[in-house]
Amino acid sequence: MPRLFSGIDLPGDIKSDLSALEMPLPGASWIEEDDLHITLRFAGDIDNRLSHEFAEELARIEMDVFELQIEGVHILGGNDPKILYAGLKTSPPLEALARAHERAARSAGLQPEKRPFKPHITLARLRNADIASLTKVLQAHALFRSRSFVVEEFVLFSSKPKTGGGPYAVEESYPLRGASRSFTGLYE
């Protein structure tokens, strides 16, 4: 049973810039540079039939290439922070792509996503993080901005079943209209 999710893989220089934000932070488990991404739709541990149907539905998505920019570093989890993440500048095309992935997941037979889409790039998972150190990290990176980058494709990622976290493997790539790349994948 593969553990699958769809997302956007980031350009290498953007991953390097994000990885360079890593600072000493007790209670943080930093994400490996190669595993930095934007999740569009988590599918979970699904059987092979459903994974093929999800892959086929994703292949039907048609959208134009678009630009994104990363803005700021934030936390999720309120008084007990769980995630340190990089935010994204508001992007109607990204929101539309996420909605298309939700429709694809439902068409394939997956249950509707219960949480609203919150575009982000997880930088670190937090467990009993030291609040004073976390505050220093947030202050140091609050004004972080990446260069704008073009999204030419989205991908279907897999990870080890039931474990979560990386390493992630790209199972399929789906080019957007106007992209310089073509479709590749295992589910062709």
Explain this structure:
It is a single chain. With 188 residues, this protein is an alpha+beta fold. The chain has one domain: Cyclic phosphodiesterase (Cyclic Phosphodiesterase, Chain: A), CATH 3.90.1140. The protein is built from four helices and eleven strands; from the N terminus they run βαββαβββαβαββββ. A five-stranded antiparallel sheet has the order 3-1-9-10-11, covered by helices on one side. A four-stranded antiparallel sheet has the order 2-7-6-5, with helices on one face. The chain has a two-stranded antiparallel sheet with strand order 4-8. β10 and β11 form a beta hairpin. The longest helix has 17 residues. It is globular. The chain starts with a strand and ends with a strand. The mean pLDDT is 91.
